[in-house]
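Convert to structure. Protein one:
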Amino acid sequence: MKMSKQFKFQHRLQQIIFYLLLLAVVIAVAVLSHRFTFQSDWTANQRHTLSAATSKLLQNLDSPVTIEVFISPGHQYHSAAESLLKRYQQYSSQLTVSFIDPVTQPQRVRELAIQQQAEMVVSGQQGQQHVFDLSEQSLSNAIIKVSRRNLPELIFITGHDERDIAGETAYDMAQWQAQLLSTGFAVQSLSMTEAMQQQHNGKNVVLVIASAQQTWPESEVLQLQEWLQQGGNLLWFSEPDTDIGLSAITEQLNLSRLPGTIVDPNAGKLGLEDPRFVIVTDYANHPVTAATSSVTLLPGAHAFQVQGAETDWQITKLMQSQSGSWSELGDMNIANLDTLALDQDIDITGPLLLSVLMEKRLSPDQQQRIAVFGDGDFVSNSYLGTAANLELAMALVNWLVADDDSIAIPVVKTQDSQLILTDQQSLLIGIGFLVVLPLCIFVIGISIWWIRKRR
């Protein structure tokens, strides 16, 4: 078939236009890929993606934060550190990251007292924090601590046989204190009189009553009432069968304590022999419980009731016991707890209110927040690490100081497996792909050629 000159011209023109369009598409893709990035994390637990809480924290950074990573260029953790910090830098221009070789800069190592490879020093307007592991939780907590303008303060009231925030016994709360300090809280223990004499300079301050066992003097009760009337925040951990003279405070908050200790027969489903362990699965829709990933465990709790329908407070009934529970008012034989049974004539049937959150807006930029719990054991050294107790405790204090953006910085737990190969295994796999597999294909091809030739 003979083609005319006009057809040849049109054919060549089409080819030129096609190649020009193809070149334009390639250039456009190159420009777009340089300006925009897209990533997709297919791991089972999104291990390579920052949590929503961390990304929001980074986007809201309003002051510079520098991160110095002390690691040798060829170290096995260098690529992991680089990958983690790239994810952080994607969300904020306030972050400045530098990698420092400890061998070439020994003076800087001595200045910062660096202890190990891959150690990070996070610096901001609130000082410096050392991070020793490549985890999102540790790094995000360090950024929170150095970037907060005013460190929120928790004042643990003493003088009435409360739990010791620095105590190492099972009853005390040293483990919780360590978590609070690492996430940017100032923590101190003071008497009620000392706390009222302090000048807080506009800081977010929360008074904490941690399971007081002795009666409060009337003068200190009046001081606490004054603190609440002035708009102060309060976290109150109460205990069953302890009358510490704070009935005026419960009346001021329109609350009443229910007598007895809650018994939860559902505890046996988790292998717990003591039915005084209350398993909480019923949460209100609130940011505090939204940050709580699973059930919480309250060992030895009592219940509250909210009094009165009309109040200035916005009240959230945060946690309730399950329907099969009750408040035991009869004699409780510790030696035979498995014989406990509901007495309809005496006991108070569940579900029962375990904790209450109260909020009141005092001005456009100030609000008062109060949390009352019928148990303090869940923040003790014995039970803080049980179930989601730690998540609840940390979310609670962040809510009380109105730092809602920091309520949830989760711990990312590895669910999917990583394949780590030795040098010999990598060599064998390489030989398999480069030699054995092509040889097999060659043999199959020769066999097929030989069979067809014989036919």
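Protein two, convert as well:
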Amino acid sequence: MIFDKNTAKKTAELLLSIKAIKLQPEKPFTWASGWNSPIYCDNRVTLSYVPIRNYIRENLARIIEKKHGKPDVIAGVATGAIAMGVLVAQELGIPFVYVRPEAKKHGRKNQIEGFLDKGQNVIVVEDLISTGKSSLNAVKALKDEDANVKGMVAIFDYGFDKAVKNFKKENLELTTLSNYENLIEQAMDTNYITEKDFETLIEWRINPSEWKK
């Protein structure tokens, strides 16, 4: 769920302004999953824009403190959320670790990089939530090391039903700065898209895996 409406709309405005999120209903993107999509999100672009980077860092830190208090450790999900996770940890003045998709095949064979003590309270930072599979894989890795995962925060969430079910199943609270609903609302309010585009974006969201197959 979003933290609040004003933050959601402002975040959407900023992401659209730097094309961290692109909307192309007439020229759809193809995701790695094979899905056709009128939207593409790359929140790493925010790292190149200092005022926007600061806005995201400060607001993610604010959400964490208001909803969970100050944790012992921030964990970023590799690779997209490593840099923002570090910035959030710096804002809160606490340690940082990051979680690989799987353990390395060599060396110490770590999946979690950095120092994490058993029983420490951890908040996971993500850049983007689609189905939630990779995000929850990171949570599992942390729990396997006896970390106390208190929740997850992210910049943007597509709001797919599958993700909602996945997070509910794991009993993990997800809070985001913005989401798909507020994004397309903001895009419509500012004439970034047309009424026809808006209808296409709504249509895609209903059944994204089958859209224009």
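The first helix runs from residue 5 to 17. The radius of gyration is 17 Å.
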